[in-house]
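Example 3.2
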Amino acid sequence: MSSYYSGSVSQLDLSKLAMLLPDQGCIELQQDKPCHTHDWHQHDINETLIIIKGRIIFSIGDDVITCGPGEYVMLPAGTRHKSTSSEFGCIYAICFQDVRKALYQEMREQNHD
């Protein structure tokens, strides 16, 4: 079973999402309507989801995690998971890689300004 990571990047300036882009590729901006469920699935690549607005509930194995604005979940390739947006819906960025290093670097730079 793959492990996952979660945390908070509440001080991340969302206008700087460009720093999370891969050398070649994109970041997906996803909007889920209220109570929308993405049923159990997995990906062949790492996936980091950063919540921008609203809340979302992730089921990862036996764990259930609720994330809100500024929080993230990093799912290594092969991690089986599902998600359901809150009754108000959810907007989040999906980065197709592990971006924790970039997130923490940005937070360190902000704290030194």
